[in-house]
Each structure stands twice: as structure tokens, then as C-alpha cells.
Design brief:
single chain, alpha/beta, 9-stranded mixed β-sheet, two-stranded antiparallel sheet, about 20% strand, binds manganese (II) ion
């Protein structure tokens, strides 16, 4: 049987040298985690398109990767302060892609910026600058290495995430400047940090729509629950009706 084909969104970046081309870039941890879970990853460029369906028709799932802040204009606000660093080309590509994938019932896994872009695409809002808008004791931008879990999350019993991880809590890493504020209709919160910050959300429908604020792709070598998250996503991608 063919492996599920999973599209992975990526960041756009200014040219590395004068006269160069704008770059599409993605940390290899995302594609590696997809491959380890038994699927074939394909990186999706930040190209605007009038119709997303020809691309999405060939994919079995969509992985929303991490990156810079979501432009607050996409949820009707101006930038709160100078810490808000947006990736406009990515927003223009990714937000319509998410809406089209949801309409098609494609399995979606969102990571870090991915929980934020999913929430905004579905009509929610974000804390633009978490330390300024919700100061608290939990360091959501850790200084420790990416593979080191530094804060706990409490997982909602009965959720898809609880079924996947097999527990009520998990130690996770944390590298985010923004976070979900008002949750979009069609999503439900399935994990929070000790300070109340939303660390996971899931679609309320039948399909696999799950997003986390932490970075499981950096933890697959040391965290069974994180491997399980990718395995469950790939399983959903391979078992579409
Ligand atoms: Mn966090």
C-alpha cells in the first residue's frame, strides 16, 4: 500500500544575500517526524493560488509547521507592539489552504504556529505578545534545547489527545511568542499549561483536526506520546473514507 502523502507548510524568508530570491524554509525535524511515522512528507511552497483543490486532492493530510507570528490583521487587529514579527506571504498562502483542507475533510495536524493559524483560519483570535498580555510564571519561550521538555500540560480526559498520549499530563517544550486567545467555533480546548495558556485544541467534528502549541517533532526521540501523535495523524491520513 502506498504511504500517505502529507503536505507540510513552511516559512518564507527574505533573500539571504542582496539580489537573491525570497526563500521557502522548513526545519527538517518536521519532515523527519512524518517519515518516521511511516508517511511521505512533501513541502508546500508559499505560492498563492486561485484554487487550492488541485493540490489538496493529491494530499492525504496537512501538517501546519511552526514559524513567525500570524499577522493580527487576519483577526481584525493592528500590531500590539514591536515584538510582533509576521510572515505575510505565509499567511496569504496558509490561511486559505487551511480553510480549503477543512472543507475537504483532510486530516490536519497543527504545531506551534499551526495551532494559531488553524484557530485564526476558523475565526479565533490570538494573544499577539504572550509575555505582555498574559504575564505568568510559565516560561513559554524556553532557553533550554529544543529536545528538552520544560513545562507541563494538563490534558482533557476523553479528548483525542488523551487517547493518543494515554495520560492526563505531559511534559513539553515551549517556543512560542503568541497563543490562542478566543477559540474558534468548531474547536475545543484539550490541553492547558499551569497558567491557563491553551496548549492543544481539536476539531469538534469526526475528522482528525488536532493542534498543539508545543513541538512534538523535536521530541520524537525521547517522548513516546510525541511519536504517538505523529502515528495517529499518519494513521488518520491513511484511513480516509
Ligand atoms: Mn508553552
Amino acid at each position: 500500500m502506498a504511504q500517505p502523502l502529507i503536505g507540510v507548510t513552511c516559512a518564507s524568508r527574505e533573500p539571504p544575500a542582496a539580489g537573491g530570491a525570497i526563500q521557502d524554509v522548513l526545519g527538517r525535524t518536521y519532515t523527519r517526524a512524518v517519515q518516521l511515522a511511516g508517511a511521505s512528507p512533501v513541502v508546500l511552497p508559499n505560492l498563492e493560488a486561485p484554487d487550492r483543490d488541485p493540490l489538496l486532492a493529491r494530499l492525504d493530510g496537512l501538517l501546519l509547521s511552526g514559524g513567525l507570528d500570524v499577522d493580527p490583521a487576519s483577526f481584525g487587529e493592528g500590531p500590539l507592539n514591536e515584538t510582533v514579527e509576521v510572515d505575510g506571504a505565509r499567511d496569504r498562502t496558509e490561511l486559505p489552504l487551511i480553510r480549503a483542507a477543512l472543507a475537504r475533510g483532510l486530516p490536519i495536524l497543527g504545531i506551534c504556529r499551526g495551532i494559531q493559524s488553524l484557530n485564526v483560519a476558523m475565526g479565533g483570535t490570538l494573544y499577539q505578545d504572550l509575555p505582555a498580555q498574559l504575564p505568568g510564571p510559565v516560561a513559554h519561550r524556553q532557553a533550554a534545547p529544543r529536545s528538552a521538555p520544560t513545562h507541563a500540560i494538563a490534558i482533557e480526559p476523553g479528548s483525542r489527545l488523551a487517547a493518543i498520549t494515554g495520560g492526563r499530563s505531559l511534559r513539553v517544550n515551549s517556543f512560542h511568542h503568541q497563543a490562542v486567545w478566543t477559540l474558534a467555533p468548531g474547536l475545543t480546548v484539550t490541553a492547558r499549561a499551569d497558567d491557563g495558556v491553551i496548549e492543544a485544541a481539536e476539531g469538534t467534528g469526526e475528522g482528525f483536526v488536532l493542534a498543539v502549541q508545543f513541538h512534538p517533532e523535536d521530541l520524537v526521540d525521547c517522548c513516546e506520546a510525541c511519536r504517538g501523535l505523529f502515528a495517529a495523524f499518519v494513521d488518520a491520513c491513511g484511513n480516509r473514507g
